[in-house]
Write a structure and sequence with these properties.
heterodimer; A: about 140 residues; alpha/beta; Rossmann fold; 5-stranded parallel beta sheet; 5 strands; globular; B: about 375 residues; alpha+beta; Beta-Lactamase; Heat Shock Protein 90; 2 domains; 6-stranded antiparallel beta sheet; 5-stranded mixed beta sheet; 8 helices; elongated
Chain lengths: ~140, ~375
């Protein structure tokens, strides 16, 4: 059962995400702050991270993603660099964000708009989890 | 330029004009009781800035602030010399102090110092006084500008915080309702499903209203935001990519005809994004499943055109003149099961006008709509402004 770590400070939003994910058979663990999230990445080693763009500060979500994807050789998260990240955001804030494979941009794999549509969420989660697990298969 | 820079220029300028060995600019506090050294030029020893002292400690300034210039011929021979820091500081012997006033209020002094005695005469004040006048005006104007900038920064912070605080609960509630509606919280009766469907539509409307109102507020508040060169190719591509999932979900084809030439306009990236998101999202929103939306970016001489055409429901002729009015929605748009606030195009119109652009709408009910946004092209060479 793939494990998903939801890093989100709003407990109701966690409920909204947990509902469709658990009903589809994912295991969901949650963290309420960026710091707790980073801790849980190490403890739980999830298959996917769903990250809220705004938590305790407007940049907390960005900081978590930058920390996790740090290219530094001695990064304490080097072992978790390949865990896919799905960022939760709102379309109006997305328009001024830059993201993509380029390291200079926000290092996340995909976005889900708030309010979350459960079908869109499940489609994106399925794609990212499948992709990551596919990468691990021998060629 | 901030007040400190203005004052430094003033001190340097005064020293040159007066051929003085040193110049100090001191400012009076609002109560008119304390003075502080605000700028200095030419002093051989390090001088402390910003620390205030009672006006009485600066007897020369105190006298000058009463309204007329003061000349100290030889500080060693006059009583000024013994007044410690407030008199003529060593190694200087003579000084000329003029008041800076604005609108009848004294705001500070400029004092020129020389190492030799008898360096300044009373008529020299006529050289320093115009500088003091200009300096006083510049200080008052710069302070006012700074206050305005601080006010704008506070306003824009308020909008950002309000944006998050207002959007967040709506988005959370809507996310939960959608989960319930899709059956992830167990089965519902038909009546419950109907009621949750209505709640969901109300929340959609509330979300759009909050977004649009805040966009409108941000647009009006950001009027003084500095324009830069915006690469339109990147902006249009980004917005099309952003809205592609929404179109796909609806069964609408969203095609983009890019332009290989780099097209640059003057504006803000946020504002241009807002224009494009609104126009393209409208086209997707009002085109039923199976329809097409085409976005084209092209150059027409010195103009850049973004053409968004759709095969959607179109706009009735009677509605066309009201399209850009706040809260107006065409009757056929209202009749659709699509949420809208009637603010989107009002926001677009404001922004397009701000960037010296034009927006035209051609449409016939039932036959689709073509929206053309035109901006003046900015030459790459002009971008380094």
């Amino acid at each position: 059962m793939p494990k998903i770590l939801v890093i989100e400070d709003d407990a109701d939003m966690v409920t909204a995400l947990r509902m469709p994910l658990e009903a589809t058979g994912y295991e969901v663990v949650a963290a309420a702050t960026g710091e707790e999230g980073l801790q849980k990445v190490k403890e739980e080693v999830p298959d996917l991270i769903i990250l809220d763009v705004m938590m305790e500060s407007t940049t907390a979500g960005f900081q978590v993603s930058l920390e996790l994807r740090s290219p530094a050789a001695d990064s304490e998260y080097a072992a978790y660099r390949n865990i896919p990240i799905l960022m939760l955001t709102a379309i109006h804030t997305t328009t001024s964000l830059r993201f993509g494979p380029d390291e200079a941009y926000l290092p996340v794999d995909d976005f889900v708009d708030k309010p979350v549509d459960p079908d869109v969420l499940l489609k994106k989660v399925g794609a990212l989890v499948g992709q990551a697990q596919g990468d691990d298969l021998p060629a | 330029m901030d007040v400190d820079q203005v004052l430094t220029h003033l001190a340097d300028g005064a020293r040159q004009t007066m051929r003085a060995d040193a110049v100090a600019v001191r400012l009076l506090d609002e109560q008119g009781e304390r003075v502080s050294r605000a700028a200095a030029s030419g002093f051989s020893v390090a001088t402390e800035m910003g620390e205030s002292a009672p006006l009485a400690r600066y007897p020369i300034d105190e006298q000058a602030l009463a309204g007329s210039p003061i000349v100290v011929d030889d500080a060693h021979a006059e009583s000024w010399g013994d007044s410690g820091k407030g008199g003529v500081p060593a190694p200087y012997r003579s000084a000329l102090c003029v008041p800076m006033t604005h609108g009848g209020d004294a705001i500070g002094t400029i004092t020129a110092y020389a190492a030799t005695a008898g360096r300044f005469r009373a008529e020299d004040a006529s050289l320093l006084e115009p500088l003091a006048d200009v300096g006083a005006t510049a200080i008052v104007a710069t302070r006012a500008l700074q206050e305005l900038e601080e006010l704008e920064a506070r306003q824009s912070l308020f909008i950002r915080v309000a944006t998050h605080e207002l959007r967040s609960p709506v988005a959370v509630a809507q996310s939960m309702v959608r989960g319930v509606l899709k059956g992830y919280a167990g089965e519902m009766t038909a009546q419950q499903h109907d009621l949750f469907g209505r709640i969901s539509r109300r929340l959609d409307l509330l979300e759009n209203l909050v977004n649009d109102l805040l966009d409108l507020a941000a647009g009006k508040a950001g009027r003084r935001e500095r324009d830069t060169a915006v690469l339109l190719n990147a902006a249009v591509g980004r917005v099309v990519l952003l809205l592609l999932p929404r179109a796909e979900e609806k069964g609408v084809t969203l095609a983009y005809q890019a332009c290989c030439e780099e097209l640059i306009v003057r504006g803000t990236e946020d504002g241009i994004d807002r224009i494009l998101v609104n126009v393209v999202d409208n086209a997707v929103k009002y085109t039923p499943s199976g329809g097409d939306v085409a976005v084209a970016l092209q150059r027409d001489g010195e103009q850049i055109e973004i053409v968004v055409s759709d095969t959607g429901i179109g706009i009735p002729e009677k509605a066309l003149p009201h399209l850009f009015e706040e809260f107006y929605r065409a009757p056929n748009a209202k009749a659709m099961d699509t949420v809208g606030t009637g603010l989107g195009l009002a926001i677009v119109r404001d922004l397009v006008q701000r960037y010296c652009g034009r927006i035209t709408v051609k449409s016939a009910e039932g036959e689709g709509t073509t929206v053309t946004v035109t901006f003046p092209r900015v030459d790459l060479a002009e971008c380094f402004f």
